[in-house]
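Hi V.,

Quick status before I head out on leave. The structure for the redesign project is tokenized and pasted below; the design run finished overnight.
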């Protein structure tokens, strides 16, 4: 066990040789200022096996943050690690400077103070790091937590909402361990952890209970259901309540997706139920299936338990019915969209890596790929011409699925979302309104398979109220602006002859415009400008390209 080999620990005893452990429930925080302390730790997931972890206020994962819609959330993130990080509020409708994307670096030993208005409807959201090429590593080792937003509309419904009693966070992650206890950062694990607990069980009261499911895994897709195919009700997806509970026997959960489900345990005192993932039912194009062309794992293509539920006596004031109706979120009418952008995914890769491209492009930290007019409604169409399904995610918004290969979404997919699984050969149209500006820190859109994300299957966009002139980067046109950060002189080079240069600041205001005499390169002096992030746009006759630049 202590040998320093790369042998993989065979933690396979899914079916009984290991004792079941009580499901860990992350502490719930409700504070004026949330303090999130990210540190390196060691944790024993298995007795006697020390696993180096990263945790937020604890050894593994982080607290559940409880927000009230309309309030101001104030957060202080301390980076106590020896490498950079960022903290992203996945699904939250916040502006780019608050969003915690790769540009919003928190250096080791420093704090990031951020506050934002909680604009999202009641629902289940989450937070995780987003540093350039390090998201998979840091998330694997344990930085992630749940956010629960509450609001008056949801409070008026008779739903379970006593955290840890009838309202349970269920963060599902697969992990692979080396024989020295360390995590393997990779697409698949062979052990399942729920809230960091292997082989978990929970005692739940014999009444209607809510599970807030979150797929916090790197690459694996889960097909969740109950053993024996009993019916449960889905009441909320990524972006809040559905309009009515949807009775289901299965719900697919791709990376980053959430589903709030109700289980009616009324009268079942003393019974025991098993929440399962039915991996044997996944299509071959979906990570987690037994597709033998890809990486392997003991959990691939099989049905395995996620959480054992032991039913106990009901609580004093139980919820005993599944409500007939829930929210009234209206899908955004298609005819309000001012623009359609088609995002075509190509590539032939593995679950853990590969060159998957979006419109032929991969991530470049210094390139803005799209610019969107503030408050515009747009349709983004994902076309998957690659060899596997990709969970596509967009920052800053919730979207609605208009259709999947022309067919309107199933009821469980008809609510507000921020991740959508786009399978091989599928065309998925989504619609959204961009009502927060990026303020100099671009939003990302990317595959939420963290291995693909870190392998550059990600692009970035800005949202400004200065849409005019800020057209997209022209295909094939690119620029290089350096050094960035700079304390003065910035040098730029373009693949085309430039005739105009525009520099905009964090608020999207134009601070420099200059006519340039058909040259492919030049200098710009930022010495007199305040420090911050700027966007340099260069135009030729027909070409446009831009780059973010940082003035120290
Ligand atoms: Cu869950 Cu770009 O993130
Ligand atoms: Cu996100
Ligand atoms: Cu992908």
């Amino acid at each position: 066990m202590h040998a320093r080999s790369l042998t993989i620990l065979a933690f396979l005893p899914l079916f009984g040789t290991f004792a079941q452990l009580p499901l860990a429930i992350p502490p719930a925080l409700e504070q004026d200022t949330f303090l999130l302390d990210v540190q390196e730790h060691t944790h024993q997931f298995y007795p006697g096996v020390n696993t180096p972890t990263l945790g937020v206020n604890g050894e593994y994962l982080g607290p559940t943050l409880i927000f009230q819609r309309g309030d101001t959330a104030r957060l202080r993130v301390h980076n106590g690690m020896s490498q950079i990080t960022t903290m992203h509020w996945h699904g939250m409708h916040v502006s780019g400077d608050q969003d915690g994307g790769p540009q919003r670096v928190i250096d080791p030993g420093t704090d990031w103070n951020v506050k934002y208005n909680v604009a999202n409807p009641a629902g289940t959201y989450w937070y995780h790091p987003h540093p350039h090429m390090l998201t998979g590593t840091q998330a694997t080792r344990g930085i992630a937590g749940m956010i629960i937003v509450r609001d008056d509309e949801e409070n008026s419904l008779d739903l379970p909402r006593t955290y840890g009693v009838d309202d349970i966070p269920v963060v599902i992650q697969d992990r692979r361990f080396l024989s020295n206890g360390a995590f393997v950062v990779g697409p698949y694990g062979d052990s399942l952890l729920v809230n960091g607990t292997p082989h978990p069980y929970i005692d739940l009261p014999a009444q209607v209970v809510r599970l807030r499911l979150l797929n916090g895994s790197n690459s694996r897709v889960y097909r969740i259901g109950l053993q024996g195919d009993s019916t449960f009700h889905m009441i909320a997806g990524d972006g809040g309540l559905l309009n009515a509970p949807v009775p289901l026997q299965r719900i697919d959960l791709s990376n980053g997706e959430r589903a709030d489900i109700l289980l009616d345990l009324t009268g079942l005192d003393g019974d025991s139920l098993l929440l399962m993932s039915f991996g044997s039912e996944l299509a071959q194009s979906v990570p987690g299936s037994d597709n033998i062309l890809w990486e392997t794992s003991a959990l691939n293509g099989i049905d395995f338990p996620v959480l054992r539920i032991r039913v106990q006596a009901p609580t004093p004031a139980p919820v005993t019915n599944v409500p007939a109706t829930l929210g009234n979120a209206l899908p955004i009418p298609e005819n309000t969209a001012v623009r359609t952008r088609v995002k075509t995914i190509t590539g032939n890769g593995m679950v853990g890596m590969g060159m998957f491209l979006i419109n032929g492009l991969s991530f470049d930290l210094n390139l803005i790929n799209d610019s969107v007019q503030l408050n515009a409604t747009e349709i983004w169409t994902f076309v998957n011409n690659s060899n596997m399904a990709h969970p596509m995610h967009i920052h800053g918004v919730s979207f609605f699925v208009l259709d999947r290969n022309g067919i309107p979404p199933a009821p469980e997919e008809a609510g507000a979302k921020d991740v959508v699984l786009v399978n091989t050969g599928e065309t998925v149209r989504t619609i959204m309104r961009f009502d927060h500006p990026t303020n100099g820190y671009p939003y990302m859109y990317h595959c939420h398979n963290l291995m693909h994300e870190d392998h550059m299957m990600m692009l970035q966009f800005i949202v400004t109220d200065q849409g005019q002139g800020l057209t997209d980067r022209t295909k094939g046109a690119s620029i290089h602006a350096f050094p960035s950060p700079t304390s003065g002189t910035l040098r730029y080079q373009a693949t085309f002859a430039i005739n105009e240069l525009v520099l905009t600041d964090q608020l999207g205001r134009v601070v420099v415009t200059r006519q340039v005499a058909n040259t492919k390169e030049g200098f710009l002096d930022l010495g007199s400008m305040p420090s911050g992030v700027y966007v340099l746009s260069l135009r030729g006759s027909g070409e446009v390209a831009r780059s973010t630049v940082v003035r120290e």
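Above is the designed sequence. The pocket of copper (II) ion (ligand 3) is lined by residues 356, 390, 447, 449, 452, 457 (CB under 6 Å).

G. will cover questions while I'm gone.

Best,
W.
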